[in-house]
Amino acid sequence: MRGTQDDRFAAAHVAGDTATVIALYLQAADAAAPDGEAFYLTQAYVTALEAGFPTETLLARLRALGAEP
Q1: What is the spatial distance between Cα 19 and Cα 14, in angstroms, rounded to a whole number?
Q2: 46 sits in which H/E element
């Protein structure tokens, strides 16, 4: 998650664009090794919970990894 990905995260955070932040966490999870995948999915899950976004799919992915929060 270097360069452009970091810039996109920063811009989304500054703009308060939670949907984009979650999408970027999901992209990072998809590109990561299993431990990294669980980390980024957890970040997406917590962000979605805090924002009141649906979390069922995120929770299912975490459970499938054995990383249920």
Answers
A1: 13
A2: helix 34-51
pTM of the model: 0.87
Tell me the HSE value of 44 on the side-chain side, using a 13 A CA sphere: 27
Nearest CA to 38 out of 61, 8, 6, 18 is that of 61
Residue 6: Cβ-neighbour burial (10 angstroms; 0-12, 13-18, 19+): exposed
Q: Using an 8 Å Cβ cutoff, are 32 and 44 in contact?
A: no
Q: Looking at 2-6, 8-12, 53-57, which range is the least confident one?
A: 2-6
40-54 per-position pLDDT tens digit: 999 999 999 999 999
